Amino acid sequence: MIKVRAVFEKCGRAKYISHLDLNRCMQRCFKRSGIPIWYTEGFNPHIYITFALPLSLGYESKVEIMDFNITEDEPFEIIAEKLNKAMPEGIKVVKVYSPQTKHTLIKYADFKMIFSGDVKSELEDFIENGNMTTIKKTKRGEKEIDLREFVRLTGCDKEGENTSVTLRLPAGNDLNINPSLVTDLFIAQCGKETELLSVERTAILDAEDKIFE
Amino acid sequence: MLREKIEKYLLDIQKPARYIGGETGSVIKDKSKVSVRFAFCFPDSYDIGMSHLGMKILYSLKNAREDYWCERVFAPGVDFEEIMRREGIPLYALESLDPVKDFDFIGFTLQYELAYTNILNMLDLAGIPVYAKDRGNELFNIVVAGGPCVCNPEPLADFFDIFILGEGEEVNLELMDLYKQMKAEGADKKSFLKKASQIKGIYVPSLYDVSYHENGIIKSITAKDGAPEKIKKRIIEDFDKVFYPEEFVVPFTDIVHNRASVEVLRGCIRGCRFCQAGFIYRPFREKSADSVCRQARALCESTGYEELSLASLSTSDHSQISDIISGLIPYTEKEHVNLSLPSLRVDNFSKELMEEIKKVRKSGLTFAPEAGTQRLRNVINKNVTEEELMRTCTTAFTGGFANVKLYFMMGLPTETDDDIRGMTALAQRVVDLFYSLPDRPKGRGVQVSISTATFVPKPFTPFEFEPQATREEIMHKQQILMDSISSKKIKASWHDPSTSILEAVLARGDRRVSEAIYKAWKMGSKFDSWGEHFNFDNWQKAFDECGLEMAFYASRRREYDEIMPWDHLDYYISKDFLIRENQKAQAEQTTPHCRLHCSACGVSKETGRACF
Ligand code: SF4
Fold first, then answer.
1. Residues of A with CB below 8 A from B300's CB?
2. Mean of the per-residue pLDDT values for chain A?
């Protein structure tokens, strides 16, 4: 049994595949691809896939990570090629390699968001001074949290008529901040009419802000 | 662009993946390079429609032709429909996301009567007038329908340009070819319909006049403009060689039947008198074990499905069923594919088959004795004896099963209260059998569930003449059933008869029913087969307003010589045969199945050769 990690994009129509459905979809992709995929043992054998981070329905991503096992050695390029032949529109494997790290090292994720109109200064002001207390749903119920200490603005630019914003947010086992918590607050406080047009995960990082691999 | 408009709202609705396409196996073409576009509409939700095998066959078949493009359309959920209407999003097809209004053909499959209002709703959502007469004479937007309910399409006659009778593999392409040719010639719709009516299997309802007696019974059905007096259904001569898809569209969301499926046979040898499918799909034809295994493999490989089913009315009647199963098992086991065998018959449920099934299925078993007593089973020609059922249950129990579900129909012709009590008595004997077996599953109690459905008489069956039991009669029968159950090991469930009453009305309705369907839809009826949406009062009002009585269609006995609304449609089942069978039913006599003895139903006379 050989451990394998794949990085894939989930864009276009594929962004409407929910996390639960993605697992099933990947099971079938692996079956179609014909790579020597490993099945769990026991009563109900299935293909073993673990995803590093779930992605909310409707978000795109350039950097989704999944781990799986194969039973025979096969070159990583061939695995990528076979998988890509089997993938639905919008999902594309960009890298396949042998994992050296555990998913638990993941600490942050970057999200690039596009807001309609020019709201650059409003956004910068909001990140500096806006009210960032909100209610976060956890497994143990709801609790009030102040997002300011968790949110980092890593990019804010005009993009045509719209504004693109990149936020770095905690991600992983310990704490996950969904970007919608921040964007909802911003839209409410912006003062200008604006809409969130798209969200895309652009990076997954470790505690030192290095790209997780 | 429509796509942007759709995407704007997708995240506000349930299971958005159902509305945006992009699934593996969906076919994308360059629309500037295709000459005929076909919108295949399933008049129910994506989850149900995507489970339907006939759609998959015709989708692949049409798309195999380079210059034809077939796309899928489903009824949007109530939440999305509201947004579509509010935001002016027309009904669109899932591949191109183009409006249905842009398509040459708009084809519906009629699988069950309770989907009829959804058809009107979908046409309306597409921005297409629901009445055929309001759609103009341009050769475009031809609204067609196929599927089992087309054997009596009269209640929908006002809404459709064309009905396609019988098996669609050949005639669909012939129809599209004619369209392509006449479109190039600049013909109009009227001349196209006239020409199309000459194709075997094509029924153009506007070319027929129906007149009625004062009592509402049909006086005559007359063909005009050279249309044939009798429209014959189509059948595939060589079923083993007929087109079968090597790919399915694989949905992202979970749907009712999410699996690879190979059709193993068509038709049925049994002749159960209540079963429309058993008659309208005749003759019985099998696919060879080799073809089945080859097609199953190809489909599993192309879809990546983890489940494979063998589809037919009665898979265990396949003469090579053991070869099929033993041919599939090595592959499915190696590739971790579950093999599921749905319609197994009690009387064919051998020990070997049992062993094979046990390998793949561990849950409970279902059987359909359909009637509680042997007398009534003889009436309906369900040739299952109690000994056979008990033998099967013995095999099942000793094989480790402890849950059995028994399906019955309620309101069958000649049924008495004793027949109803017979259901419980039968269930009790199954319970007793369980405890009499020394090698029954240990540590578990047996559970027998009785599930009843109200009987609906259907066209082209020996019971097409029969009245349906009235609501009062059904309520009485349900009470008898409940009163007869005293054991905790037996449970019974049933449904409100209202939907079955409507089903009976629509199944044997005539053209005048079109108006009532229109009115019910206008009053908001849709998704009538979904309990939570069904509103019987709407329908009652609609029929009242049209001056029609539901009882006339549902619970009236027809004379043998009455002209039925579907009498001009020829499904090769002769009226004489149906009358003979009806008389035998009244006399509680059974008819052997086709392999044992041919009962001259009319099919072989039409095909010109013996069925076996
Ligand atoms: S012609 Fe005879 S064998 Fe053929 S379907 Fe009819 S009854 Fe059965």
1. 31
2. 93
Instruction: Examine the pLDDT at A7 and tell me if it is beyond 60.
Output: yes
pLDDT in tens, A150-169: 999 999 999 999 999 999 99
**Distance from C-alpha of B386 to C-alpha of B389, rounded to nearest angstrom:** 5
Structural domain count of chain A: 2
For residue B233, what is the DSSP state?
A: P
Assess whether the region B2-232 and the region B363-507 belong to the same CATH fold. Answer: no
Residue B212 structure tokens: 């009625």
Q: Are residues A73 and A114 in the same domain?
A: no
Residue A157 within any structural domain of the chain: yes
Alpha-carbon distance of B472 to B497, in angstroms, equals 10
Q: What is the pLDDT of residue B363?
A: 54
CA neighbor of B394 nearest in space, from B357, B436, B450, B345:
B436
Cα of B57 to ligand 1 centre, how many Å?
A: 26
* Buried residues in B520-548 as b, exposed as e (16+ CB within 10 A): bbeeebbbbbeeeebebebbbebbeebeb
The complex's ipTM works out to: 0.91
In chain A, the percentage of residues whose pLDDT exceeds 70 is 100
Quick check: is A212 in a domain?
no
- Closest Cα to atom 5 of ligand 1: B283
B601 lines ligand 1 (CB under 6 A): yes
Query: Structural domain boundaries of chain B?
Result: 2-232, 363-507
Q: Residue B41 is which amino acid?
A: C
In A, which residues are within 8 Å of B336 by CB distance? Answer: 39, 45-46
Same domain for A44 and A120, yes or no, is no
**Same domain, residue pair A170 and A200:** yes
On whether residue A18 sits in a domain, the answer given is yes
- Counted residue by residue, chain B has a size of 612
Domain boundary, last residue among A51, A71, A100: A100
Average pLDDT over residues A31-40: 95
Question: Domain holding A36: CATH number?
Answer: 3.30.70.580
What pLDDT is stored for residue A62 in this prediction? 97
Rounded distance, CA B377 to CA B359, Å? 32
- A76 and A109 inside one domain: no
Range of the domain at A120: 104-206
CATH of the domain at A110: 3.30.70
Distances (CA, A) of A78 to A34, A83, A84, B232: 11, 8, 10, 54
Q: Which of A55, A80, A100 is where one domain is finished?
A: A100
CB atoms within 10 A of CB B44: 23
Peptide bond into B283 cis (omega under 30): yes
**B306–chain A nearest CA distance, Å:** 8
Class of domain B2-232: alpha beta
Residue B360's pLDDT is 45
Length of chain A: 213
| Residues forming a β-bridge with A7 | A65, A95
pLDDT at site B346: 42
Residue A44 main-chain phi, psi, to 5 deg: -125, 80
Contact B16 A57 (CB under 8 A): yes
Residues of B in contact with A71 (CB under 8 A): none
Q: Do B11 and A57 touch (CB under 8 A)?
A: yes
Which of 3.30.300.30, 3.40.50.150, 3.90.1150.10, 3.30.750.200 is the CATH number of B363-507? 3.30.750.200
The per-residue pLDDT for B380 is 98
Splitting chain B (612 residues) into consecutive groups of 10 residues, what average pLDDT does each group show?
Answer: 93 95 96 97 96 96 97 97 97 98 98 97 98 98 98 98 97 98 98 98 98 97 97 96 96 89 95 96 96 97 94 89 91 89 50 53 73 97 87 81 90 98 96 91 87 96 98 97 95 90 98 98 94 93 98 98 98 98 98 96 94 93
* B485 CB within 6 A, ligand 1: no
| Residue B517: CA count within 13 A, CB half-sphere | 31
